[in-house]
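Hello K.,

You asked for the raw outputs rather than the summary table, so here they are, unedited. I folded two proteins back to back in the same session to keep the settings identical. This is the first:
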Amino acid sequence: MKSDLSRIPSSGAAIGFRVHSGWAAFVALSPDKSAPRVLARGRPHLVETFTYRFRQPYHTAETMPLDEARAFISNIEKEASRFAQEIVRSVRADLQGQGYELRCFALIRASGKPLPGLEKILSSHALIHTADGELFRTALAYAARHYRLAEFSPKENELIDSAAKTLGLQAKNLMLQLTALGRHLGPPWSQDEKFAALAAWLALCTESQ
């Protein structure tokens, strides 16, 4: 059944994130008739020094002794959490200034299994890649809980199919709507922004049910 955005208060808003190592793309939306409206977007950093060493912390830690690696990653986790809270705080304030209340938080998740302990992660290059992204996703998830936002966490490999079913649209038409959603904004409106917007759109629908 197609979700009805009219069920959520028009002053409500959702923010969606698609995360990369050391940065994220976000889009904030509000309900507007049959389709949402973009209120804010951005590509903030989640580390202070945006270099390979800090935005790929598990790759960096791979060559360190285990205790040193654990301390290094812990420091990056704390820094990322601080940045994540500031990002959510700033967007929430921006939306309040526009007359909207940030109610929902959508974070696109990887499709992988839970990560093992640090020693096993550092012995597997594939797990290192996964752990780098997961560190920054976790920081944003904690920020959502800090601000008591309703959480929605779709898996990326299921996002399009799930959204098409929820919104009552064919996948092709859904992607056309996402493209149109950002047409008036100008670049960047890449797959990062489209997926972040779609996650936020689904969060609004979840809130409306």
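The second followed immediately with the same parameters:
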Amino acid sequence: MDDDFEFFLAQMGPAIERRRVSEASMARFRGKLPVQLLAYWEQHGWCGYADGLFWTVDPQEYEPVLEAWIGDTPFMEKDAYHVIARSAFGKLYFWGEHTGDTLKVMAPGAYGISRESIFQDDRLEFALRLFFSNRDREENDFNDMFSGARKKLGQLKHDEMYGFVPALALGGPATLTHLKKVKAVEHLVLLAQLAPLQIMNPAT
């Protein structure tokens, strides 16, 4: 195990709800996603960390989510993207085959953050290691609600997330009492239909 992933595990804790990644899935993404990511999949599977606050996911399973959020946007003209991870509240991490970690979408608020690629093509293996070492609990929580949501609603399964009902885009309040366990893929696709995606471009 490399130092970056060891640091990630130290910050985010042991895996839960681990699912084995088949050789067919490995083959499907070989040459599209970093070798290092496939090595993590092989060793750890697709699973949750930090008690289910952060999840690595099957990009094929999340293709409807990708299509719903950026399928008709200029992003798909710039690179081929895959959803490789998400948070318990629907923060989506997109990985570009040539540009790496350059797009994140916070689905409940229908906003995204896009930045220029720092590492491209031949440096994407290094970028992938940085992606994991830079993850922390705070960025994946939503208004410090995770602990309360887990206590109230229980631990998430691999195909679940905490969603606001009614959705924030429909005027629902961002409070713990309005959180429910929902099916992740279905809910994320629904959220994409409720409000247009707003993209921010940070200066750094």
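Residues 17 and 154 are 14 Å apart (CA to CA).

Happy to rerun anything if the numbers look odd on your end.

Regards,
P.
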